[in-house]
Design brief:
The longest helix has 15 residues, at 98-112. The chain has one domain: Gcn5-related N-acetyltransferase (GNAT) (Aminopeptidase, 3-Layer(aba) Sandwich), CATH 3.40.630. With 151 residues, it is α+β, with helices and mostly antiparallel strands. The protein is 31% helix and 25% strand. Strands 1-2-3-4-5 form a five-stranded mixed β-sheet.
Length: 151
C-alpha cells in the first residue's frame, strides 16, 4: 500500500477527448509511454467501437487520476467475455479506492452487455496488481507466455 495515497471522493465517467493528455500520462506510469498525439489516434479509433469502453476516475479539483479500458472478447473456443485491457491509477492516488471503483464500473459495463465473465492479464512481475485483483474476487486461471511479431 502506498503510504501517501490520497483518499478522495471519486467520480467514474466515460473517457472523452479532453482526457487525452491524462490518458497518455497515465499510460506512461503503466509502462507504456505515449504522447498525447499517439493517444489521441488510438483513442479516436477505440472510442467509436461499440465493443470497447474506456472509463476515467476523476477526483474533485484534480485531473483524471486513473482509467480502465475494456473490450468484448469473442472466440470460437469459449463464451464471450469482457477483458480489462488496461487499468492504471496515478501513483499518488493508489490504494485510495480508485482502482476498485474503475473495476466495478468495468464489471457493470460487462453485465449490461450480457457478458457473464470478465478477465484480465497481468504481467508476472506485477505482484501488487495480482493481490489487488485477488482481493476483488478474481482467480488466476493460467500462466502463459505472450508472443508478438512485427509485421
Amino acid at each position: 500500500m502506498t503510504q501517501t495515497a490520497k483518499r478522495v471522493e471519486i467520480e467514474i465517467r466515460p473517457a472523452e477527448e479532453g482526457d487525452i493528455a491524462a490518458l497518455a500520462r497515465l499510460a506512461g506510469q503503466l509502462g507504456y509511454p505515449s504522447t498525447p498525439e499517439e493517444m489521441r489516434d488510438r483513442f479516436s479509433k477505440i472510442a467509436v467501437a461499440p465493443d470497447h469502453a474506456t472509463f476515467v476516475a476523476v477526483a474533485p479539483g484534480e485531473a483524471v487520476i486513473g482509467w480502465i479500458q475494456l473490450s468484448e472478447a469473442r472466440s470460437i473456443e469459449s463464451e464471450p467475455r469482457a477483458d480489462i485491457t488496461g487499468l492504471v491509477v496515478d501513483a499518488e492516488f493508489r490504494s485510495g479506492g480508485a482502482g476498485r471503483r474503475l473495476v466495478e464500473r468495468g464489471e457493470e459495463w460487462a453485465k449490461l452487455r450480457g457478458l457473464a465473465q470478465i478477465g484480465v492479464r497481468s504481467n508476472v512481475i506485477r505482484e501488487r496488481t495480482h493481490v489487488f485483483y485477488e482481493r476483488l474476487g478474481y482467480i488466476a486461471t493460467k500462466t502463459q507466455r505472450v508472443f508478438r511479431k512485427k509485421i
